């Protein structure tokens, strides 16, 4: 065989000889929290790599090694990486905290309530070692000095304290020495700006000479001015009822408190009939004296003509006025004298 022919046959056989090639693996896929040791881009079958967990993650189970198989796929990884957690934060006294989670890279924002100052970090982060970046802060109250005391006055504190410093919310009640009146805030306290609230003044206040009331009297006849907090008492004439306070007081405004009123009694305005008063029945001619006091209640009797029975209706004395119910019909003199047993008050009641 010629050498050129033999070479041609060898080339043709080479074209028909099957070629077997192995598939390569790319970089292995990584799930959250994992990382790869090394930076190789292509791997041959049989190559293996070691996986690890990133900072802030903890390996929980499974082998770290995966192998590139002949099919070009990586063997299944059994390594699990879980996010590290920090301790649950304690509640902040006199403050608030905002957070969504307490795992790695989570943050907490701290704020204090009005009147309190943040001591420490306002924002902390959960680190990769499971510890918070800063210790929890504290909310300390704003401080004030001693309260201003008005001239001729004093403050009665809510509680005892020592030293020359007070804290937010601490306070007391102002008082003026008699006969001076307190004008302004009755209470004072250490406020959010580190200052006390505006103190009042103690001033000399008088009220004009008190005046009398209709159908009544004062317990004193001294027609003079009265000082702050001084009082005057009132009473009513016989048969009149005192409506309001027995005593009035000179106020810090220089005016008297509201005076009472003497309310008038009422006369029962019927000539013939029977009434019910204080649980007892009276013929009006026997009701002596014909008078009831302010706010007293009497009952008169009306007739239910359809059912032919009687019923009692109440009415009240209001400052000398007593309205007789419209359903009441005063009988004639003849009926009242001779047929009184037929009156609504005497027949069967509805």
TrEMBL record:
InterPro entries: Compl-Cell_Adhes-Reg (IPR050350), Sushi/SCR/CCP_sf (IPR035976), Sushi_2 (IPR015104), Sushi_SCR_CCP_dom (IPR000436). It comes from the Eukaryota. Residues 1-21 form the signal peptide. GO terms for molecular function: heparin binding. Residues 23-83, 84-141, 142-204, 205-264 form the Sushi domain. One of its GO terms (cellular component) is extracellular region. Disulfide bonds join 25-68, 112-139, 207-250. It holds the Pfam family Sushi_2. Keywords: Disulfide bond, Glycoprotein, Heparin-binding, Repeat, Secreted, Signal, Sushi. The keyword Transmembrane helix does not apply. It is found in: Secreted. Binds to various kinds of negatively charged substances such as heparin, phospholipids, and dextran sulfate. May prevent activation of the intrinsic blood coagulation cascade by binding to phospholipids on the surface of damaged cells. This is Beta-2-glycoprotein 1.
